[in-house]
Amino acid sequence: MLFATLYDFSCYMGAQLLSFYISLTYMSIIAYVLFCFCIAIAIFISNMKAIDAAKAAEQHLAVEVASLARINQMKKELMNTISHEARTPLAVLASYSGLVAMELKNQQGNERIIADLSKIVDVSKRVANLVDSINKLTLDNMRSEKRVTINLSELIEQTAELYRRIFERNNIEMEIAIDGDLFVFGCPEELTQVLFNLLQNTKDHTKYGKVSIIAIKENNIVIVTISDTGHGIPSELLPHLFERGVSDSRFGKGIGLSICKEIIDTHGGEILVKSELTGISKGTRITIILPATIEGSP
Fold first, then answer.
1. Are 217 and 177 in contact (CB under 8 A)?
2. pLDDT confidence of 27, banded at 50, 70, 90?
3. Which helix (H) or strand (E) holds 178?
4. What digits encode the pLDDT tens for the residues 266-286?
5. Residue 109 region, left (φ>0) first, then alpha (ψ -120 to 50), else beta?
């Protein structure tokens, strides 16, 4: 292009600087075409860089959108968990409050009233502790920082006794058969929550029936079975029963059992369910299997 410029300048000044003037008559046109071609290449390269930058920005935005979606989902699950896990002990609280009100009205005696009030206080403390720890339970995949050796026999008996009068009020018979000194290693609060959820589900889905709680030790495992004579669970729902959000109109929001499974999984155990809608064995049976330990050992 510099050569063409000098050539044009020499022609404009009337001077012929080059001896092959005729052969270079179209030098300016060729130079202009070459210049336009270079400009086009420069624009193309610039556009490609802009496109690459736009793609990178789009990918970064997609990552941020995905992160926000995950955060929103976690927030939603957290709120659902708080709502559900607070509802279960509050249901117990409301039931015992009703019993106390009835006893006060009928003046049946102070000892039973005092005992029921003590249970109300215990469950109220449980709700407060639950709200404090629910964020850890949800976001850390239900893993507890502190685990100890637990006498599961005592834990089951205490929880079952808490529900006994609630079952009686709903015309549900309770049968308990628990081997003594069944030790497991885990978090008492989390395992108590599992029992709360399962017994509450049993109460909600059983009318004028019977609930059985059996706990035994076989070899190196502890097996806890909670069965009822309720209306059962549809067969199409059984394979997905422990998935969060899977439910129908009779089985709540599909949160409680998923939380139970997460807790049992983190304790190295297994939870199984069997249910029938009709027949002699109508009802639901949930089995919890946990590794056994000895007293004082992790």
1. no
2. low
3. strand 173-178
4. 899 999 999 887 666 688 999
5. left
Helix, coil or strand: residue 104:
helix
Which residue blocks in 140-245 are alpha helix, DSSP H?
Answer: 152-169, 188-204
- Please give the biggest Cα pair distance in the chain: 131
Residue 125 in domain: no
Give how many domains the chain has, as a whole number.
2
What's the pTM value of the predicted model, to 2 decimals? 0.58
Return the structure tokens found at 270: 């297994």
The Cα–Cα gap between 255 and 262 comes to 11
CB-based contact 287:215 (threshold 8 Å) = no
Q: Which range scores top for mean pLDDT: 9-23, 54-68, 96-110, 251-265?
A: 54-68
Any domain includes 161: yes
CA 127-128-134 angle, to 5 degrees, is 80
Closest CA to 82 of 138, 141, 144, 159: 138
Q: What is the CATH number of the domain that holds 197?
A: 3.30.565.10
